[in-house]
């Protein structure tokens, strides 16, 4: 089966946003064994969209659309498809109810054009949108399959994963089971990880092993295709074991885990509480932890001490330490972690202080960061980082490294 | 002049990388007033690439290619184009010298296939590659213009900016000026905003007005095409005035502004300091502010009080308030803001407390949030939000709303 992905939106052609949807959908289709031969982007123009559909029909069996399902008059994807394939748009009552409920919840009047979002292709299977208003659609007319998805990635990605993919997998009527399992690594570069498993990468056929790097993390996706789920998991486990014998030191989690969720799970499992004192990261460490539901079992709170004075006055770091060693130092980080642990009466205290950049800070070059962690037995662990001069990359990297150190400390206990 | 952008590379169709080149080239072409009607992605397959070229020639004057100029046998962009338009590939001595110099510099032998990178379309203008080996090309045969660029963004972007764009601008021989100006809105939905300016959207020709929504924000891009910069700005200002007379209440900034940067600028301009006490957002408000360079002039710090106990013990909120009103209340938010303002001795105190979700919290449904802001004159402003049950969307929305309220308060002073 061959597919073409058509993204609809003039903002893509104006270069205002990047077509990340095509990458996401392509990688999902690759997992289902569907070949993608073309991506197309077309603007909010009905005639040009129609031509793109006609062309796609001439060279693909499956056409996946993203964008153009919203309430405004620019949004014309489903209208154009309906006219082109000769079918009607009908009101989907479930979608309409959910749109009305949305406006009630946010206590704003629903303008008339919002109703248009609940119109769907007659005879389609409706794909629920749990993160927005416009529903998606799965439609087959015997010659082609059309999947219509909303444009915003945070609506499109879960809809594809949870709604469209299972329907498509059934439709492909595979008799085959495809299972993927993702291993997540931190603290090792993609090139280095690849070098260590090169022979396995080169010999792979089933399961396949796909490395992917982003934001300082590397993942390996193991995918097995077999006739039964049990057999697939057997193959995956064998490959996982082999991989972890090489690079297991850097593993921090699986599938949808994040560094924050792995940290939170370990803390909760061990019944430990945590507090943080943050300078350059200004709350980012705590905020990333708080993104994980249930974290109130372990995160008590903390302080943001952005200025030297607030480190002294609100956190109680001794002025002598700051005068002698500066705010970007192991000594200051240790004092901050120790003070916040005492203030919030937690088992673990964490501190981050440094020069976020782009300018140097307190005589330290941009990218210099000190992390201190004080464990329940009062053991102190400090780490110095030398990052770039990019402020927000540094702040995020410092937070990720802190999670990584915590995972290592908590896993070894 | 109309353009089509063709990115060549099977890794794009497999979803391994995102086509950021199309966005970059589109935004650059928009600046030159070139309309982009299609993006196409095609794999490393000569026949499918040839079909894509033929199609692009039927609907565009300018075709911009990225990718497929490297040394390996997969790289076949220029070979396919040469065959298709009936021209030869010839060795470019300057490019060859620079490739040889590159290998000398890294002290490695140059393999024979690297020479292939110095082959260019006969009669083209060569575009130098200052960040890699493969040169780009600008070629016109009277019917179409073909621009060939390398795939890696760090080679492609400077080559387009410094080499291709000036050549293209001269070729277009414009005498025309195109200026864009972006207005940024918050607190109004895209559909509602469009409804309020529908007549202007429908009547638009020059300047054009393009709405775009993302993450609860809406932007309007005004673009004018005229013979002089002065005239373009005149047209833009007239349109802006008209737009703001309708929806000016929701304007928070221009162009690259963000809610956080607009807040930070206003605070710094007015010489005011700020501290925050955060519960559900757990540092996200402070962290978003700290993403802006120079914010240490206004952000002193704050506390994260994730638990009820920490609100009492570390922040000093009275236990009575929490017992009587609960932690998700105007009273608790006000006490938090007041306490953090006093603790950190700042001009402004901000507090966020609520039920992030997905579960209810302290008898309040998920998505209930209270925001309190205490101004320099001790005026207290509180707001209640009713958001969704999506934890992290709620946390981000609560922070954005807080910035929005601060901008309104600071702009009115």
UniProtKB/TrEMBL annotation, chains A, B:
Gene3D superfamilies: 3.30.70.2860, CinA-like, MoaB/Mog-like domain. InterPro entries: CinA (IPR050101), CinA-like_C (IPR036653), CinA_C (IPR008136), CinA_KH (IPR041424), Competence-induced_CinA (IPR008135), MoaB/Mog-like_dom_sf (IPR036425), MoaB/Mog_dom (IPR001453). Residues 4-170 form the MoaB/Mog domain. Belongs to the CinA family. HAMAP family: CinA_B. PANTHER family: NICOTINAMIDE-NUCLEOTIDE AMIDOHYDROLASE PNCC, NMN AMIDOHYDROLASE-LIKE PROTEIN YFAY. This is Putative competence-damage inducible protein. It comes from Paenisporosarcina quisquiliarum. The gene is cinA.
